[in-house]
TrEMBL record:
This is Mimitin, mitochondrial. Signal peptide: none annotated. It comes from the Eukaryota. GO terms for biological process: mitochondrial respiratory chain complex I assembly.
Protein backbone atom coordinates (compact mmCIF):
# COMPACT_ATOMS: atom_id res chain seq x y z
CA UNK A 1 0.00 0.00 0.00
CA UNK A 2 1.35 3.45 -0.94
CA UNK A 3 0.65 6.51 1.23
CA UNK A 4 1.33 10.05 0.01
CA UNK A 5 2.13 12.82 2.49
CA UNK A 6 3.47 16.37 2.32
CA UNK A 7 6.01 18.28 4.43
CA UNK A 8 5.82 21.96 5.49
CA UNK A 9 7.60 23.08 2.31
CA UNK A 10 5.08 21.29 0.11
CA UNK A 11 7.42 18.48 -0.93
CA UNK A 12 5.57 15.22 -1.58
CA UNK A 13 6.65 12.10 0.34
CA UNK A 14 5.58 8.52 -0.25
CA UNK A 15 5.58 5.53 2.04
CA UNK A 16 5.34 1.98 0.71
CA UNK A 17 4.23 -0.29 3.55
CA UNK A 18 6.14 -3.44 4.41
CA UNK A 19 5.04 -6.74 2.91
CA UNK A 20 6.20 -10.26 3.65
CA UNK A 21 9.57 -10.20 1.88
CA UNK A 22 9.89 -6.54 0.96
CA UNK A 23 11.03 -3.95 3.49
CA UNK A 24 9.06 -0.71 3.74
CA UNK A 25 10.33 1.99 1.35
CA UNK A 26 10.14 5.70 1.93
CA UNK A 27 10.85 8.44 -0.59
CA UNK A 28 10.89 12.23 -0.74
CA UNK A 29 10.71 14.37 -3.85
CA UNK A 30 12.85 17.36 -2.95
CA UNK A 31 12.08 20.84 -4.24
CA UNK A 32 15.64 20.88 -5.63
CA UNK A 33 15.50 17.65 -7.59
CA UNK A 34 19.00 17.61 -9.09
CA UNK A 35 21.20 15.11 -7.27
CA UNK A 36 24.47 16.94 -7.77
CA UNK A 37 23.09 20.00 -5.93
CA UNK A 38 22.06 17.98 -2.84
CA UNK A 39 23.74 19.20 0.33
CA UNK A 40 23.73 17.01 3.42
CA UNK A 41 21.40 18.57 5.94
CA UNK A 42 19.15 20.19 3.34
CA UNK A 43 16.40 17.78 4.40
CA UNK A 44 15.28 18.37 8.02
CA UNK A 45 16.67 15.73 10.37
CA UNK A 46 13.18 14.63 11.35
CA UNK A 47 12.39 13.74 7.72
CA UNK A 48 15.81 12.12 7.31
CA UNK A 49 15.13 9.92 10.35
CA UNK A 50 11.74 8.90 8.90
CA UNK A 51 13.22 8.12 5.47
CA UNK A 52 15.98 5.97 6.98
CA UNK A 53 13.47 4.09 9.14
CA UNK A 54 14.68 5.39 12.52
CA UNK A 55 11.18 6.58 13.34
CA UNK A 56 7.82 5.07 12.46
CA UNK A 57 5.70 8.16 11.85
CA UNK A 58 6.62 11.12 9.64
CA UNK A 59 7.13 14.40 11.51
CA UNK A 60 4.24 16.80 11.90
CA UNK A 61 4.45 20.46 10.88
CA UNK A 62 4.16 21.48 14.56
CA UNK A 63 7.08 19.23 15.50
CA UNK A 64 9.23 20.63 12.68
CA UNK A 65 8.49 24.24 13.69
CA UNK A 66 9.09 23.52 17.39
CA UNK A 67 12.44 21.87 16.68
CA UNK A 68 13.50 24.69 14.34
CA UNK A 69 12.81 27.35 17.01
CA UNK A 70 14.69 25.21 19.56
CA UNK A 71 17.74 25.01 17.25
CA UNK A 72 17.65 28.79 16.75
CA UNK A 73 17.52 29.34 20.54
CA UNK A 74 20.53 27.05 21.01
CA UNK A 75 22.49 28.99 18.35
CA UNK A 76 21.67 32.30 20.08
CA UNK A 77 22.69 30.97 23.50
CA UNK A 78 25.96 29.60 22.09
CA UNK A 79 26.71 32.98 20.50
CA UNK A 80 26.01 34.77 23.81
CA UNK A 81 28.29 32.39 25.72
CA UNK A 82 31.07 32.87 23.17
CA UNK A 83 30.76 36.67 23.38
CA UNK A 84 30.87 36.56 27.20
CA UNK A 85 33.93 34.31 27.07
CA UNK A 86 35.75 36.64 24.66
CA UNK A 87 34.89 39.67 26.84
CA UNK A 88 36.13 37.88 29.98
CA UNK A 89 39.32 36.82 28.21
CA UNK A 90 39.97 40.39 27.03
CA UNK A 91 39.41 41.69 30.59
CA UNK A 92 41.85 39.13 31.99
CA UNK A 93 44.46 40.22 29.42
CA UNK A 94 43.96 43.89 30.40
CA UNK A 95 44.18 43.15 34.13
CA UNK A 96 47.34 41.09 33.61
CA UNK A 97 45.81 37.93 35.02
CA UNK A 98 46.62 36.01 31.86
CA UNK A 99 49.64 36.46 29.62
CA UNK A 100 48.90 37.32 26.03
CA UNK A 101 49.69 34.51 23.63
CA UNK A 102 53.12 34.76 22.01
CA UNK A 103 53.19 35.11 18.27
CA UNK A 104 54.65 31.86 17.09
CA UNK A 105 55.35 30.49 13.67
CA UNK A 106 55.09 26.76 13.12
CA UNK A 107 58.40 25.31 11.95
CA UNK A 108 58.69 21.59 11.50
CA UNK A 109 56.66 19.76 14.08
CA UNK A 110 57.25 22.18 16.97
CA UNK A 111 56.13 25.82 17.26
CA UNK A 112 59.01 28.29 17.55
CA UNK A 113 59.12 32.06 17.81
CA UNK A 114 60.07 33.63 14.51
CA UNK A 115 63.17 35.85 14.74
CA UNK A 116 62.93 37.55 11.39
CA UNK A 117 64.14 36.70 7.90
CA UNK A 118 65.87 33.40 7.25
CA UNK A 119 69.29 33.70 5.68
CA UNK A 120 70.83 31.11 3.40
CA UNK A 121 74.06 29.77 4.88
CA UNK A 122 77.04 28.25 3.14
CA UNK A 123 76.99 25.28 5.51
CA UNK A 124 74.20 22.70 5.28
CA UNK A 125 71.43 23.35 7.81
CA UNK A 126 68.41 21.32 8.83
CA UNK A 127 65.46 22.09 11.05
CA UNK A 128 62.74 19.45 10.69
CA UNK A 129 61.36 19.78 7.16
CA UNK A 130 63.45 22.78 6.09
CA UNK A 131 66.72 21.22 4.90
CA UNK A 132 69.00 23.60 3.02
CA UNK A 133 72.06 22.15 1.30
CA UNK A 134 75.25 24.17 1.66
CA UNK A 135 77.07 25.64 -1.31
CA UNK A 136 79.57 23.28 -2.94
CA UNK A 137 82.54 23.72 -5.20
CA UNK A 138 84.25 20.73 -6.80
CA UNK A 139 87.81 20.10 -5.67
CA UNK A 140 90.82 20.26 -8.02
CA UNK A 141 91.49 17.29 -10.32
CA UNK A 142 93.92 14.72 -8.99
Amino acid sequence: MVQKQQDEMGEPCWSVTERRLVRAKRMVVAANSTEYEYIEGSIPIEWDAWIRGRRKEPPSVEELLKNETYREQIKLKAKEVEEKDLALQAKEYEDGLVATPAKTLAKGHAAATSFGKEEISEDPTSTANTFQPGSWMPGPKK
